[in-house]
Amino acid sequence: MLLIQCPYCGVERPELEFSCRGEAHIARPADPSATTDEQWAEYLYLRTNPKGVIAERWRHIHGCGRFFNALRDTVSDKFLMVYKAGEPKPDPAQFSKEAGR
Amino acid sequence: MADILTSELYSADSSQAPLLVLPDVTIMPAAPAARVSLRCRETGLALAAKAFGTPIPQTPLTAETAANRAAFWLGPDEWMLVAPESQLAAILSDLETHLDAVPHSVVDISHRQDAVLVSGPRAGWLLNTGVPIDLHESAFAVGTVTRTLFHKTPIMLWRTGPDSFVVEAWGSFMDYVTGLLVQSAEELKAA
Amino acid sequence: MSQPFRIEKGGRIDRAASLSFTFDGERLSGHAGDTLASALLANGIHLVGRSFKYHRPRGILTAGSEEPNALVGICRKGDQTPNLRATQVEVYEGLETVSQNRFPSRGFDVGAVNDLLSPLFPAGFYYKTFMWPKAFWDRVYEPVIRAAAGLGNPPKNPDHDTYGNLYAHCDVLVIGSGPAGLAAALAAADSGARVILCDEQAEFGGSLLTETAATIDGTAPAQWVADTLEKLSANGNVTLLPRTTAFGYFAQNFVALAQRITDHVSEPDPRLPRERLWQVRAREVVIAAGAIERPMVFPENDRPGIMLAEAGRTYLNRYGVKVGHNVLVATACDTAWQAAFDLADHGVTIAAIADVRENPPEALQSIAKARGIRVEKGCVVTGTTGRKRISAALLGRLRGNGVAAAGEVACDALLMSGGWTPTVSLYSQSRGKVVWNESLGTFVPGQSVQNERSAGACLGIYGLNAALEDGYAAGENAAKAAIGRSGTVSRAQAHGADAGEGGILGALPHDRDPSKVKAFVDYQNDVTAKDVKLAVREGMHSIEHIKRYTTTGMATDQGRLSNLNALDIASKALDKPVTDVGLTTFRQPYTPTTFGIFANISRGDFFDPVRKTPSHDFVAGQDAAFEDVGQWKRAWYLPKDGEDMHQAVARECETVRKSAGLFDASTLGKIEVVGPDAAEFLERMYTNPWKKLAPGRCRYGLLLNDAGFIIDDGVVGRLAEDRFHVTTTTGGAAHVFATMEDYLQTEWPDLDVWITSITEQYAVCAVQGPKARDIIAPFVEGIDLSADAFPHMSVGSGTFCGVPCRLFRISFTGELGFEVNVPRRHGKMVWDKLAKAVAEQEGVIYGTETMHVLRADKGYIIVGQETDGTVTPDDVGMNWAIGKNKADFVGKRGLARPDLVAGGRKQLVGLLTKDPKVVLEEGAQVTKLANPPAGTPAEGHVTSAYHSPAMGRSIALALVKDGRRLTGETLNIPMPNGAIPVEVVEPFFYDKEGARLNG
Amino acid sequence: MKHYSFLELAKNAFSAHQNWGRQWRAPEPKAEYDIVIVGAGGHGLGTAYYLAKEHGLRNIAVLEKGWLGGGNTGRNTTIIRSNYLWEESAALYNHSVKLWDGLSQDLNYNVMYSARGVMMLAHTVHDIQVFKRHVHANRLAGVQNEWLTPEEAKEYCPPLNISKNIRYPVVGAALQRVGGTARHDAVAWGYARAADDLGVDIIQNCAVTGIRRAADGSVEGVDTAKGFIKAKKVGVVAAGHTSVLMEMAGIRMPLESNPLQALVSEPVKPAFPCVVMSNTIHAYISQSDKGELVIGAGTDQFVSYSQTGGIHITNHTIDAICELFPMFRRMRMLRNWGGIVDVTPDRSPIIAKTPVPGLFVNCGWGTGGFKATPGSAHVFAHTIAKDEPHPIAAPFSLERFRTGRLIDEAAAAAVAH
């Protein structure tokens, strides 16, 4: 069971309190009607699924209820950092180095 | 440290029997209370404080209390305000009046959840049979309030003293919470 | 009741407390403090069971949790718990135990024929045979294999014991309470850290409880243990957990412990749990798991009476039991010599010490000489004799690459030691990579991956003083890392019990016919050195392949005894260094762990919360049948006077349409959407338009996912400009709320709107039927109920029975209907009053089944029944619910995808059977032909089917390919006993004009 | 290839089993192959086998970064069934079930396919509706599946607790009698041995590090730990690692890789005659020929390649098992492990050509790939050999995610009202 720092509560809590909501920074197109079928499929379904550092969305569903983002190493499952929703995506490459890959 | 619950906010419900009475831990159903979910941005906090009569806490996981009032930080834009049951209507209207000019949401959730009072030297131990967070005073000081889980059910937990806690759960989950607590306390009866 | 092998005095057993127990029905005695193994040995019993495959007689090999042979069943309360290790079972008065995997008895076992046939059963033999005749596999071969395999008999009855759970947090978790563990706990506790110390054994102390040839700070090791425990238990920050196995090391220093609470007690207090799961989050972990002794792989190394040397010493020093009268010691390392000396000092004849090494230390040799013990150097055991217990061993002298026979030595026990293997299981579970230590000839922990450090023997640091030193340092460093400070504990000094030298891996050479002898590598699974070599010969070159092909290392000790020997044999067969062959992964649990401990408190009604509505007790008192919907219990139907479900539902339906019915709708999800942008938010979430909905009015809302498929629906009432009361399906409530939060927080954080779950704020009583208004009117204040003032699809606030109320005029039945929302704790009072009022109007209380029939009459869909996640609004004829002028809503773009606009989609239709009495089966398929050949694609399926009292016939809804175009045509429902012809009709049946609900 | 039989076993017993040959070779890779399969699990090895056997191709290599059969093939709970809802799925899995029956004889390797029956428990009214829909759809499709009352379910599986007083009582079951289990390792080994015998090079410890494309965009070969290997066609059958490999060819996939745990108990004498699954309360159990109770747990909620999962997942699985089979509460877990399952949005696999000419992919089997091994391999071999999807594979395209023609086996589980 992972231990996750909630950037809003400022404390580490067990994974049980959280819900993982998949890859982060996949914004819903501002004007969906202007997208092609390919683009819509990409938004809905295509995922990076990296072996290494992933930026993903978590929700502290049984805590403060907020969504936030995290960088996590999918090989060790270690969290490298958490940041609030709306903050820019950190460079995963930099964290890849720190994670040793 | 004495219990910070000096008001009538969370008192044992005299109409209900205690759920558990042991030398080391007791569980009492709490009397009904007025509960209000307050949602707003920073612009509303001072206004809400004025309306409600306590500051609206901005430090995560803390509560502000006054006579017959408690305001719990539950999230960065979410608070639960608690007061005696009889004052609900007045509180709702005061809040709406004061917050009229700013975006906000005030919702009555008085009946959504029930509370029980868990206290005694083994209260923390008993809660940890289902609560996955560290309840040691160094990690969960008196006054801390949080939502978390009790085994498979969401709860709200407020520590009111070194050995006393308020546990709130949605109404239909309370039997599960108290049932498990009472069952887990069974071993305390053994020699 | 004599215990012929118990020594006169010594050991840690309570000689005053004599206990009686049975083994295979034989009554025996032991003492408090005995394990089953030590008590059996005290009674001279070595044969305790049979091996897995060849059913060979087996004895007690070890004194610890790694025991592969001595697995027994424990009988209690008329049932049996299988596969418990005799070396861990504590003897209590009345303990009943049985041996396993033998028939009819452990002394005479017909399964032993397998041993004779063993030439036919090499590793992996079953992959090569049993293929013909084909039908024999299921009927003959497999049942025989299954019956022959398995160890003990499974428990037969439900387990009545309880299991506990505790989440715990600490600064330093110390696993293992030998010298390193105790020292680490002392050092960490001294710093003020919160410490948990656990040990799988009943007593703390580990090897210190066996050690008699050393002193710590001038006292006996056992005394030092007692003193240390006194200090630790006096420290309020220390939790001491004996009988507690750290079995799983998970991510981020999450360690699972299994605490055994009552298994060792004769008459346990029923209020105590049998075992408890500790889920520990530790800032730092010190693993002090020790090392275990390695068996030697020589021919016939498995006879009862053959035992690890340190185990023999443990039985003597800790339990006061001699493992034999005439003991041969075979070793490759120094430590076993001490076992020989200790036994000799207690009057046991040492037949010889046979050391593989040409030059064991002089010091040891001179001690042996002083005791008159025969020493054979450069000597191996090449075989043993004795049927149910060893009676003699063959010795062989190493000569270059070969072995020369060196005679036979009579003995009644053989103690062996191939050296020591650090217990790296938990380190390995923590995802650390072990490294090969050439000088020790074994793997030891490498770099820590988590906040963890190994200490003492599990790190390959042997010798008592060195282990203590390492333990103190580990405890100090752990505390420093966890809380930033360390204490100043005074470090004890040990004298004696120094680290020994020596050790050997793999199969020992011998002079026997290799095809005729078995030298066991994995005792429990009967894997021999030959098997490992065969696997390599057949191309199994990865250690994982060898493990899986031979099953070596897959026994209940998870290969702790066998892995290194197997690895060495494989490496020689492959002609590769062991480091290139690699070690298999150690997985949790460290030792087998009771299922009950994982399930712990999730049992019965606590398996999952039982959510009850305010009417629950009332309808339960009327013998309602309930159905589970999510976690809720909902009244399904309420039979009267012996009615069956069909009769009850028919009566309920008729009564609702004739007068009125009362229904508990409290379980529906309810969300209060509040804020200046509330309408805008709903506009984006739901397909429907909301901005023009007037306060006081309601609208049916349809929710899609962004793929375009229906995921939920419900009525939404506008309470004020900035306030909506949204309802969802019961099962969808949590998902809809989470989905709304997701869009709100992450896509549209700029909107000034907040959502609050009010599902449990309100109890909801639905009153439906022509008399609904009459029934509720007396209770309502503050709302004009007249049809003009409060038409269908209205919402208003007032009071009901004197309590605040949100009243909806809505209908899911097609009748005049109201839904009374009152604060939950008033729900019971309001329900009781309404129930009385409904009864007075000759109305009825109805359940979900009736609700389903009534809505089907009207063709209202149920999400999850008419839809299955692949259905669009158009499919169910609900394009009317889509706001035509909306630029966007969740799902709009998805709906435009090619397959969602293509022809040939399945559409909702009504079906009427030609025979009105026939009710279709839900889920039945729809075809054009009456007798379609197998493989015919279906045209669709029946989603709902009921007998409709209102229509006086059966009705059905179905999703049918191009269904709307087929109205009026005949299709078929193929059933096992013939097809049922149906006519396609529009998907609504009753009061199509809606006159009744507008009444 | 030496024919395996009882006679052969007896003969070899006389020579102390010294004369058994290797089950497969350990060749060095050639510079070029017609077809390179990436991933030596059951699906990959089977693909190579059918390419050689049914399409007459010989110049084939299977590349494996670890040891063959070491991925999900060797880590699953070996459940075999074909009673899927949608016609497309039922056709695929039923194709597989037909191949399972006779696979031991075809491969001359006893894969221990044991048609002991798979029973899926219904616990709610909604479950009944869903399962009966399956039963009816399956009957029409020619797939065996039948509905049982709780009493009939108990008769088929005596340890089952059908008390009405448990939290989620059993209200019925769907039984597929031809469903069952097989010995997972043997499947990989049997295919490996048979493919090797037909000349397929199985190259272990040979990780693929890149997929090279020619100027025209088509596939050219793969970079590996053992150098560049030229290939006319490349088939990626890498389960949890598919995204990582396809990324090398510049293709993003509709996949997420999650940890999936499984566990076994200590071995006991026969106690459990069939396979029982409960999707509603998440429990899957059978007993292996060795006597271990084999139990499938759920997936963790996040992407991970760690091959480990959280204990809370195990807890939830075992509490469900203990509710259904309360006598097993005293049994003990012997070993727990994790695999990496690649999950698609509609929980159905992808067996398809890709936008890159010459590059094919077979993935997305989620938690249920083992059962499909022979069928998947068979239709994938056809797809690669003919450069055209096998009719059974055609619906399982990448294209469906664009058009919305999903084969959504998970969707039917939606609960409401």
Automatic annotation (TrEMBL), chain B:
Family annotation (InterPro entries): SoxG, TrmE/GcvT-like
SUPFAM superfamilies tied to this protein: Folate-binding domain (SSF103025)
UniProt protein name: Sarcosine oxidase subunit gamma
Primary gene name: soxG2
UniProtKB/TrEMBL annotation, chain C:
Keywords tagged on the record: Oxidoreductase
Keyword Transcription regulation: no
SUPFAM superfamilies assigned to the protein according to its UniProt record, in alphabetical order: Aminomethyltransferase beta-barrel domain, FAD/NAD(P)-binding domain, Folate-binding domain
Example of a GO biological process term: tetrahydrofolate metabolic process
GCVT N-terminal domain: residues covered: 616-886
NADP found in the keyword field: no
FAD/NAD(P)-binding domain residues: 171-444
Signal peptide: none
Stored InterPro entries: 2Fe-2S-bd_N (IPR042204), BFD-like_2Fe2S-bd_dom_sf (IPR041854), FAD/NAD-bd_sf (IPR036188), FAD/NAD-binding_dom (IPR023753), GcvT/YgfZ/DmdA (IPR028896), GcvT/YgfZ_C (IPR029043), GcvT_C (IPR013977), GCVT_N (IPR006222)
All residue ranges annotated as the Aminomethyltransferase C-terminal domain in the record: 906-991
Family: Belongs to the GcvT family.
Protein name, per record: Sarcosine oxidase subunit alpha
Organism: Roseibium aquae
From TrEMBL, chain D:
Enzyme Commission identifier(s): 1.5.3.24
An MF annotation (GO) of this entry: sarcosine oxidase activity
Domain of life from the UniProt record: Bacteria
Keywords, ordered alphabetically: Cytoplasm, FAD, Flavoprotein, FMN, Nucleotide-binding, Oxidoreductase
Pfam families on file: DAO (PF01266)
Residues annotated as domain Rhodanese: 35-79
Subcellular location: Cytoplasm
Assigned GO CC terms: cytoplasm
Gene3D superfamilies per UniProt: D-Amino Acid Oxidase, subunit A, domain 2, FAD/NAD(P)-binding domain
Cofactors required: FMN; FAD
Gene Ontology annotations of biological process type: tetrahydrofolate metabolic process
Group of enzyme by EC: oxidoreductase
InterPro entries documented for this protein: FAD-dep_OxRdtase, FAD/NAD-bd_sf, Rhodanese-like_dom, SoxB
Reactions catalysed, as given in the entry: sarcosine + (6S)-5,6,7,8-tetrahydrofolate + O2 = (6R)-5,10-methylene-5,6,7,8-tetrahydrofolate + glycine + H2O2; sarcosine + O2 + H2O = formaldehyde + glycine + H2O2
Family classification: Belongs to the SoxB family.
Protein's name according to its UniProt entry: Sarcosine oxidase subunit beta
Organism this protein belongs to: Roseibium aquae
